[in-house]
Amino acid sequence: MASKEFDYVIVGAGSAGCALAYRLGADPNLRILVLEAGGHDRSPIVKVPLTWGLILKNRLFDWGYFTQPELGMDGRRIECARGKVVGGSSSINGMAYARGARQDYDAWAGELGLSGWSYEDVLPYFKRSESWEGGESALRGGSGPLTVIRMDYRDPLIGGFLHATRACGYPTNDDYNGDSVEGFGPMQATIRNGLRCSAAVAYLRPALARGNVTLVTNALVEKVILQNESGTPRATGVAYRHNGETVLAHARREVILSGGVINSPQLLMLSGIGPAKELARHGLGTVVDLPGVGQNLQDHIVFDIRWRRREPGPLHRMMRADRIGMDLIRTFFGNGGFSSKIPAAAVGLIRSQPHLQHPDVQLILAAGPMNAGPYFAPFKKPYTDAFSIKGIYLTPQSRGQVRLGNADPSQAAVIEQNFLATETDRKAVREMFYRMREIGAQAGMRDFIAEELSPGPKTRTDADVDAFIRRNAITLHHPVGTCRMGAQGDPMAVLDTHLRVRGVEALRVVDGSAMPRVVRGPTNAPIIMMAERAADHMMGRRLAAEAPAQRHTLAAMVD
User: Fold this and answer.
1) Does residue 360 fall inside a structural domain?
2) How do 288-289 and 130-132 pair as beta strands?
3) How far is Cα 347 from Cα 183, in angstroms, rounded to an integer?
4) How many angstroms separate the CA atoms of 38 and 431, rounded?
5) Does residue 61 lie within any of the structural domains?
6) pLDDT digits (tens, 9 = 90+) for 404-456
7) In whole angstroms, how large is the CA radius of gyration of the chain?
8) Please, what is the angle between helix 102-110 and helix 119-129, to 10°?
9) Active site residue 316
10) Among 300, 316, 477, 478, which one carries the catalytic annotation?
11) How many domains does the chain have?
């Protein structure tokens, strides 16, 4: 059995693991090991933004997870794509960049008692992580590792859509990562020089270049090694499989789990940390009884209303085989091109119901269909050109769980999302459907619509809408919460406010599973922020919260 020694062992080269390696590795005296179960991220399909749809449709670079049959989704097993590749889910996601709302973090600090996690506390870490195309400001970072741009996708449909949203009374918002999240504007994305800027590109590549960070791919971690010499278990390393061999990696300082919302709770339970009854059911001894491990699973769901386009749009014209082939090559070699963008052209956060204090819904204009692919008439006919409005429910009340299927680390955990389990959630997504259809009915959209393809004009009643949602809604791949942090005395908290595992020394969980409650938006940026903050705590540093930025509205800026 081979053995190696490092200061820190990081399990998972996803968004959090990459950021941790970069920040911890800034100290040249530290030796850091990053273990990734997947392979490298060198494929052009990973790098070129437009090919993102191929990754999702074909489940490439993915663990291949599915939920158990979901009662609220007509008993369907919902795919749960999670990145199994260097960069993790940041290498397979849609590259959307959003922080969530100020209210999300203030609720973490206020309602949940998580000191140090208010918006003003986390803002400096968001700023430090990003390099925003608009440059440094009170609310945006201008020199961080992660490149963030506005998606400059050109299509006359976008103007019609924004006109329709204004006709419905929704505000314009040029920067939803600025002062307010509410309103419609251009999508922001993690793209650099026309290629995906994943956490591996932004953080891990520079960390590896320093020479004190080691990356091992195709390494499946089987358990955390725990020793108990002082009455409190201490994590001293991990055991992992690599090239058919079991390897022990010792950690002089800490073991950090950054395997994600499914894998981190699974690994804790396989190591004897979790609900005692669940562990005993699989013949595993309990080292620390933490009933919250695997609980509190929450996620955003999405569905769309789809229309056939009256005249072919830019994507449809570009997808002719000879055109798109040359463009993909040009984009891959860093020369820009149509393939450097995705047709997620505009986005907005709104309230599904007028009485709500804050937005609970996100709507995205997708200016092309997911089945878009190269065609070469007359040998291959083009696909039906269509566009859609995608509706995402941001504040779910339903909660699921992750359980062990068995004690074999190579086997998938059992995932129960429990989508749409509450009447609050069901009513909100129904109202979201009506807001989406209302936008599609406005004058700004009529010149672009030939007919409604899905669900079609016969879907009118609440019962019809509910049935359509149950048949068609899926995950937006933003699961969080299965190793949540909590205040002192919270019996279901797995972590303290510094993301340390309760009852175990030298063991942290730094990834989306640590979130107590899902934020209003994609989770990649918040996970990177959490890793930035955790690294500072481990290194004995703290970014001081800046003075609260002056609040303003877009209208005031224009005036």
Assistant:
1) yes
2) unpaired
3) 8
4) 40
5) no
6) 999 999 999 999 999 999 999 999 999 999 999 999 999 999 999 999 999 99
7) 23
8) 130
9) no
10) 478
11) 1
